[in-house]
UniProtKB/TrEMBL annotation, chains A, B:
Its cofactor is FAD. This is FAD/FMN-containing dehydrogenase. SUPFAM superfamilies: FAD-binding/transporter-associated domain-like (SSF56176), FAD-linked oxidases, C-terminal domain (SSF55103). The keyword Flavoprotein applies. Gene3D superfamilies: 3.30.465.10, 3.30.70.2740, Vanillyl-alcohol Oxidase, Chain A, domain 4.
Length: 465, 465
């Protein structure tokens, strides 16, 4: 095991190795230039011993061979959009930024694959391939700023997961460099593959704990011709959830089905003119996709279903331009939330669908008990609810109530058969809670799997399970 | 490791344990009653030491505790539809039939999950849930006779994989009983879950090599309102492949896109009246699904695309009744193949899509060189091609040519960046070839993962990687 305290420093020859391998400009040591690599969007900080920026596979292999030899903790990261502290270098170690490994190596409109380095921003990749009529569905909210490497490491989800599934479903193959420097290439360019154990999907979502993922082969789909969206407001929360049920019962599987409850609507209402009446308790934001004529038929059908659910408002957008204002509302949730309080504890619990209403009502009670506003919104379609506990962290007493509220929300989630995370992962934020969801035998197996990849425990230690 | 020779016999106390645990009727020992459990559809046989039929979780745990203690190889199976010999009990051990564990425990139209025991026939489950407007997409050709446990163990694919993905995408959670009798319950009823390493997908497709999967929680979708199918014939193979490209380029992702080349069409033509002209070199069989009105629009659009590809014939079926004769053709391939020769070696290679034409042409050359008819057909959409090398195995010289042709096809597949199996798995049939696809480090990692689950190597030994 690496040193689990933070007293480790970089020996002279260790520093020399990093400088020689990566060059002056891409091996950083001083606190001023390394400190921004010590935190991610979870805002928890630990000082990196060094930051290096490999430019290609060969440097990655050298780094990983060296790290194993000197038992140096390795923290792979890109844009640091992770919200659970998965990128925080604690215990002390070397942070590896993938941002110089940002080539789109290949996009093949016949094979329907893209081969990319981990530092490519997912939104950039999407724009690039969509010009060729190709489509990469996973769309985490961070898609414009997060990288594909991070998306793969966390098995990122997003709005379109309802119809298209999560990142896991789109990784056909990858190169992973193990501690010690050996590289494996499980999977490949074929859309199906069942030869041997599924190392590809084992690496997807492993939060940097097994190996350094140094290139990724993604499955692409034909790009649907068009999209259409609906924003539907209800004066009762129950109505919104009944509407979701009615949509599914009609055999409709939307590309996305987001929702916001009254606290979230109120926050958004503070930063923009809301298209829903004041009495609105919950809103659904639904997107369909498909070919233009089929979409028109589907939209009509969906509206017929929704009109029977007693909506207080119904706005429709046909095609990206008309839809944009509706999705702008969804994107405004995060900035708007800070109108409520300066700090948040955010969770992305996931529930069996039938338990969503009960959970939302009880989360509201938790907020009331704590004297805090809790925003709930997210991916209703797959039961993945974002819970933002708004508070002022500079008030220790309020911070304590917020932390306590988080504990209650997580306990509630597990009592309803839910999962502590649907797409963010464990990181530091949930490390102390994992044993409540995973049994000791499961965790022992995970440790055994980890040991097969990383026997000395140098890959992103201190996180996860 | 268990004895790797086949000389092991059952000790008296071992026999007694099995009889006491499962009762007279469900612990079989004599050759007459156990012999049918010694083979699967691969038609390779090894005599079981015993066959037991657990009726529930408790018996499974007792069995697995005992098996670990006495280092007894355990071969879990159901209907034995496996075509690569994954169910063959060699080295000698105990075969466990899951056919008495065939309860549909729960179908929940709100959660959109089904909880089932492994012995449920997948087609029966589908019929059962479709009555409630629910949909379980994976549809291996064996769906009416194979079980969900086997489908999970092999990560079964099927026709609808193109649009809906494979079995892996639908397993939300499961119970797995480890050697030693401990049970784990990774995953659950939530549609998303990223807490810890992905043990669920590691078990899916593991071909019985890690643990006994004793119940399964499946993700369900809303059932599409209707379906439509097209059968399109071409006088050139290239045209059929161009047509597939044109469909994708138009942004259409069919639910299924099957194909048959001339050898397969000729075989089918021997057992039924073919709807295509004699000059047909290749045919595509395409299915769309969706709501009725959208489907009409999509079908029109698809026809517009296809009319520009110069088809020699085009038959359409709207709704299950009209479609049935078209899909009957697809189902007739297997029985029709025996009109060509009494035996087959079958493979399910998978290729990067752009390599399909080259591969088909070269497989034909392999057949010509061997003086054998090779049928090619299958899941064009995801590059998963079934290759049936027809021959008369009673002629040793012809059998030799068939075996040699198989070697050539597999080498060709790998040279084109393909995979040895898209959905059948490795089993016995490909065990000797796996090292050509998987590198030594990958195989070492797989062995490490296996060791974490099954340290004594009692789970389905002698197969796989």
């Amino acid at each position: 095991m690496p040193n689990s305290n933070d007293t480790r420093t970089l020996a002279k020859d260790e520093r020399r190795f990093l400088r020689d391998t990566f060059g002056e400009g891409d091996a950083l040591f001083d606190a001023e230039s390394t400190c921004v690599f010590g935190a991610d969007a979870y805002r928890n900080f630990a000082p990196p011993l060094a930051v290096v920026r490999p430019a290609g596979q060969e440097q990655v292999r050298e780094l990983m061979a060296w790290a194993q030899k000197v038992r140096m903790p390795i923290y792979v990261r890109a844009r640091g959009t992770n919200v659970v502290g998965s990128c925080v270098p604690r215990p002390a170690g070397v942070v590896v930024s993938t941002l110089k490994m940002n080539r789109i190596i290949d996009v093949d409109a016949e094979d329907f694959v893209a081969v990319v380095e981990p530092g490519v921003i997912t939104g950039d990749l999407q724009k690039h391939i969509e010009k060729q009529g190709l489509f990469y569905p996973p769309d985490p909210a961070s898609v414009k700023i997060s990288t594909i490497g991070g998306n793969v490491a966390t098995c990122a989800g997003g709005m379109r997961a309802l119809k298209y599934g999560v990142t896991r479903e789109y990784v056909l193959g990858l190169t992973a460099v193990l501690p010690g420097g050996e590289a494996i290439h499980p999977g490949g360019r074929t859309h199906k593959n069942v030869v041997g154990l599924d190392l590809v999907r084992l690496l997807v979502g492993s939060e940097g704990s097994l190996a350094f993922i140094s290139d990724i082969t993604l499955k692409l789909l034909p790009k649907p011709e068009s999209t259409a969206s609906l924003l539907v407001g209800y004066v009762q929360l129950e109505q919104a959830l009944s509407a979701a049920r009615a949509i599914f019962a009609a055999g409709i599987l939307p590309a996305a089905m987001e929702f916001m409850t009254r606290e979230t609507l109120a926050a958004v209402g503070k930063v923009m003119t809301a298209p829903w009446p004041d009495t609105t308790e919950a809103a659904l934001l639904i997107r369909l996709d498909g070919s233009r004529d089929a979409l028109a038929a589907d939209l009509k059908r969906l509206k017929n279903v929704l009109e029977k659910t007693g909506p207080a408002s119904l706005d429709t957008g046909l095609g990206p331009e008309e839809e944009e204002p509706l999705w702008e509302i969804r994107r405004m949730i995060n900035p708007a939330s800070y109108q409520i309080a300066p700090d948040k504890i955010s969770d992305d619990i996931t529930l069996p669908r039938a338990k969503i209403l009960e959970c939302l009502v009880k989360i509201r009670e938790v907020g009331r008990g704590a004297g805090l506003t809790i925003l709930t919104f997210g991916h209703l379609g797959d039961g993945n609810i974002h819970v933002n506990i708004m508070h002022d962290a500079s008030d220790p007493q309020e911070r304590g109530r917020a932390v306590d509220a988080k504990e209650r929300v997580l306990a509630l989630t597990l009592s309803l058969g839910g999962s502590l995370s649907g797409e963010h992962g464990v990181g530091l934020a949930k490390a102390a809670h994992v044993h409540k969801q995973l049994g000791p035998v499961e965790r022992r197996l995970m440790a055994g799997v980890k040991h097969a990849f990383d026997p000395l425990g140098i890959m992103n230690p201190g996180k996860g399970w």
